[in-house]
Amino acid sequence: MTEETTVKNINNFQCPLLQNEPGEAQDDWDLIEIIALLWNRKWWIVLGTVLITCLGLIYALTAENRYAAQAVFAPREADKNTGAGLLSQMGGLGGMIASQMGIGGTSLDHIVIIAKSHDLAEVIINKYDLLPKLFHKNYDFENKKWTYEDTAEIPSVKKGTKILLQSVVSISSNAKSNIITIKAECYDSVLAKNIVNYYLQELDNRLKEDIVRQSHEKKVYLDEQMRSTEDPWMVQKLQALIGAEVEKTMLISGSALNVLETPMVPTEKLKPKRKMIILGAFFIGLIFSAGICIVVGYLPNFKKHGDKSA
Question: Is 257 strand, coil or helix?
């Protein structure tokens, strides 16, 4: 029996259990009919699957490699000899002074807000000349000039900040563990590591500046409180607080961040996952092609049923 005869027999076969009663419409979906339909259009399915798989292959081969580097750090905790530690020894009065002065360890949320700020991103872009690297496809590094014909098309720092914060750098925090993770993802593995280091350095500098400014404001407030009290014990504690603030500014050369995981140059790319892309394109092509064949095959039946209903 030839293949053509077999296909015709399949097309003409109707399962007895699924046969409609006489007079009923013969347009119900039947598994055997679907199989026969797909078999008759198998070359269309093969063609569609190969086409979509090839498109996936082209994308997988031309997609730019992306590398990711990250650092994990925590804010420095207040020592018992610092303002926060001394105020905790003063009970409720110390808590009142702390709330008015904002004394305490640098909060996790405060650091995250600074790290995600546009101001910090602009400082990093300008200081480390990141604009050409963020738009590397339009910059000639050998001649050190942009490839745009119109100078108005040269990206601004504001646009670079948007790209840096939305597409390159991601910042997350874990309040339970009191840690922050900075991750940089870009086309160059060394650049990814450098960007994380830039953020650690500039974030540390910004926090140090805040510490100096806040220490000065706290010393002014504590001086006022000391002049307004006559309690010797309170005067002694306030003097200790002022001394702690002075010591803090003297020791500002130390890091305000406790780096738990330093960034490393990634040795493996983050994406694209080329095997997964090709495999996904194959299955998408197969399902899509088969679905189109089924819709096209049953479309005449739908039209015929619509005409009868009308």
Answer: strand
**Cα dihedral across residues 247, 117, 174, 163: positive or negative:** negative
**Is the pLDDT reported for residue 98 higher than 80?**
no
Name the pTM for this structure.
Answer: 0.67
DSSP, res 104: S
Q: Which of 43-47, 67-71, 107-111, 128-132 has the lowest mean pLDDT?
A: 107-111
Neighbour order of strands in the sheet with 67-75: 169-174, 179-186, 67-75, 257-261
d(C-alpha 28, C-alpha 7), whole Å: 20
Question: How far apart are the two ends of the chain, measured CA to CA in Å?
Answer: 44
The pLDDT value given to residue 167: 92
CA torsion sign for 255, 259, 265, 271 is negative
Calculate ∠ Cα 26-30-35, nearest 5°: 130
Cα–Cα distance between 265 and 171 in angstroms, integer?
Answer: 18
Strands 67-75 and 257-261: antiparallel
Other C-beta atoms within 10 Å of 149: how many? Answer: 7
Residue 82: strand, helix, or coil: coil
**Please, which residues bridge with residue 139 across strands?**
146
Average pLDDT along the chain: 78
Tell me how crowded residue 166 is: count the other CB atoms within 10 A of its CB: 9
pLDDT digits 0-9 by tens, 73-89:
998 765 444 444 444 44
Residues 153, 157, 160, 161, Cα dihedral to 10°: -150
